[in-house]
Design goal:
Largest sheet: 6 strands, mixed
Shape: elongated
Number of domains: 2
Number of helices: 23
Strand content: 5-15%
Strand order of the largest sheet: 11-13-14-8-15-16
Radius of gyration: 29 Å
CATH class of the largest domain: Alpha Beta
CATH topology of the largest domain: Rossmann fold
Number of strands: 16
Structural class: alpha/beta
CATH superfamily of the largest domain: P-loop containing nucleotide triphosphate hydrolases
């Protein structure tokens, strides 16, 4: 089932095959100049794919992507040339092993440097655009440093004359074409696989991805390293094919050209950036000769027009228009949710699941939680209520994420995992604590089925090549989907769903990992009375199955209908703890809500 090709898939494959055959024929009929031009264009296509993986799929705007390209080229040049003290090349060592080792070494160096950069730039506390600032600074520094070490880099002259003379220009044409085809095919397999969903999820919503159990920083860093290594491979090919390395490869201008290729072709499409790189390289070769000063302005204007009028690039609108012209149903290639055939493992029967003692938390001088003591039993449906500003959502956030610095102790007894020190959100999610936010936190580019698939993995790395068509799902998730009216809407993107359906999808995603503890922050906010009743029934069913639920809620009538126990939070302290009937009749609670006792 996973290997079945749809009409759209066959059409794309046929189009790609035709394009490759056209280039194969062109290599025999065009002149030497055009062959050299297309060889460079193919190499640029590889570098465009590398940037698309980083910028298009995990949303990291690498403004210094040319640095990785330059490292790959410089490594080849440095290992195959000898220079004098001024940087002038005086000899070339053209042993085949040098080229092979240099190409691999350049990839390794670029990936290692990118790993160090990513480790610090993709901090959980950092801005998403911090990587743009860091890579821009690195590119500026690299351009300056290039001329300071002439014995390694060749200085102002660069390194030259080291390309293997035994390989003809046309042979390089076909070698680089083959490399581009292999890289593009591999990238398409990657982004269409299950792990491709994870990359898009990180781009769309880092916070939600983290609470599904994934280490967002690691995903971005590894992707960043892979993109840098692939760009270095392209740079090494450029050096081998042309026998030239210069400071221009390290400049911000070259990195900007890469971003233009990706943006114009279409981010997160893989094929689009390849078309953008090849098309603009060929167009630039024709126009830059006649309009050398205006070509950069033309590229900049094209970039602005694309961003303003077609932010997704040129390829996606053309693809959609062609699909409408053929009137084919794109749903044939979508994933679908199906009942799982194996019984879920039984939940542990230990109690209590969560023990909180002396929990305090504040934002600067504002103290939100003031010594909260709480025990929650296995299979209990506990509702936390209280007036606005009481600290309810903050309590859920502290329970779900150990990165929030709080005083006091929180002990989780999760069967195989006993946790005394609060771990980060992704680790806690892997151990069985799931969270739903007050406002739906979903993924713009993922369908309902794809969202459930990622949630079901519970932080485990999906396949790099397999594209799951059928997603086995637990009865609890199917109950939520059916109750909330989401059954049969597996293919729909979250942005197209009504508010109530988004709430239902996030509840389903929170349940999909089979958590032991489910933290829900106002899951019925904005729902109708009937929808609230449906959610209440589903939550009671989950609790009877052994799942522990902590629910933040404002609707006291709803709470009284479904809760096993109610805790009232006021000014950061628990002022009442008991059954719904006991809490409803409490004078302390009425005073906290109304400011007076009737």
């Amino acid at each position: 089932m996973a290997s079945r090709l749809t009409f759209n898939g066959r059409l794309s494959a046929a189009g790609a095959l035709v394009a490759v055959l056209v280039f194969v024929v062109l290599g025999q009929v065009v002149g030497e100049y055009d062959v050299s031009l297309l060889t460079v264009a193919f190499i640029y296509g590889i570098s465009a794919v590398s940037l698309d993986l980083v910028w298009g799929y995990v949303g990291a705007p690498d403004l210094g992507h040319g640095l990785w390209f330059g490292i790959g080229a410089l490594t080849v040049g440095a290992m195959t040339t000898t220079t004098d003290s001024t940087g002038l090349v005086i000899s070339v060592q053209d042993e085949p092993w040098r080229y092979a080792v240099a190409l691999l070494l350049g990839i390794a160096i670029a990936a290692a440097v990118a790993g160090v950069v990513g480790r610090f730039a993709f901090s959980a506390k950092g801005s998403p655009f911090y990587i743009a600032v860091v890579t821009l600074a690195l590119t500026t520094a690299a351009t300056t440093l290039y001329s300071q070490f002439p014995t390694v880099t060749g200085g102002e002259n660069g390194l030259f004359g080291f390309n293997p003379l035994t390989i003809t220009t046309r042979a390089w044409y076909y070698l680089t074409l083959a490399a581009l085809v292999l890289v593009t095919a591999g990238a398409l397999i990657l982004v269409r696989s299950d792990v491709g969903l994870l990359l898009r999820a990180v781009r769309d919503n880092e916070v939600r991805t983290r609470y599904l159990g994934y280490n967002v920083e690691n995903v971005k860093t590894v992707t960043f390293m892979g993109g840098a290594g692939l760009a270095a491979f392209a740079g090494g090919l450029m050096a081998l094919a042309t026998g030239l390395v210069a400071a221009d490869l390290f400049t911000f201008l070259f990195a900007t050209q890469m971003m233009v290729w990706v943006a114009v072709g279409g981010r997160a499409t893989i094929i689009g950036p390849v078309i953008g790189a090849i098309g603009l390289q060929l167009l630039g070769a024709r126009l830059s000769g006649s309009f050398p000063t205006q070509w950069s302005l033309i590229q900049g204007l094209l970039f602005v027009l694309v961003v303003v009028f077609t932010p997704s690039g040129i390829l996606p609108p053309l693809t959609r228009a062609f699909g409408r012209l053929l009137r084919r149903d794109a749903r044939a290639d979508e994933r679908e949710i199906v009942p799982e055939t194996t019984a879920p493992p039984p939940l542990p029967d230990k109690s209590p699941v969560i023990s909180v003692s002396g929990l305090e938390f504040g934002y600067g001088s504002l103290q939100v939680l003031r010594g909260v003591d709480l025990k929650v039993q296995r299979g209990e449906l506990l509702c936390v209520v209280g007036p606005n500003g009481a600290g309810k959502s903050t309590l859920v956030s502290v329970l779900a994420d150990g990165n929030l610095s709080a005083r006091g102790t929180v002990h989780y007894d999760l069967g195989a995992h006993t946790v005394d020190r609060r771990p980060p959100a992704h680790r806690l999610a892997r151990r069985g604590v799931s969270r739903k936010f007050q406002s739906p936190q979903l993924f713009e580019s993922l369908s309902a089925a794809e969202t459930v698939l990622l949630a079901r993995k519970a932080g485990r790395l999906p396949s790099f090549w397999r594209r799951s068509r059928r997603i086995p799902t637990s009865p609890a998730v199917l109950d939520v989907l059916e109750a909330m009216g989401l059954q049969g809407r597996d293919h729909e993107k979250s942005t197209s769903l009504a508010h109530g359906l988004k709430q239902g999808l996030e509840i389903a995603a929170s349940v999909a990992s089979r958590p032991q503890v489910l933290l829900l922050d106002e899951p019925t906010a904005g729902l109708t009375h009937n929808e609230r009743a449906v959610v209440g029934t589903v939550l009671q069913r989950l609790a009877r199955g052994g799942m522990t639920i902590i629910l933040i809620e404002h609707d006291l009538d709803f709470v009284n209908r479904i809760a096993d126990r109610v805790v009232v939070l006021h000014e950061g302290r628990i002022i009442e703890d008991g059954t719904p009937a006991e809490v409803s009749n409490s004078d302390v609670v009425r005073e906290a809500y109304l400011g007076t006792v009737a």
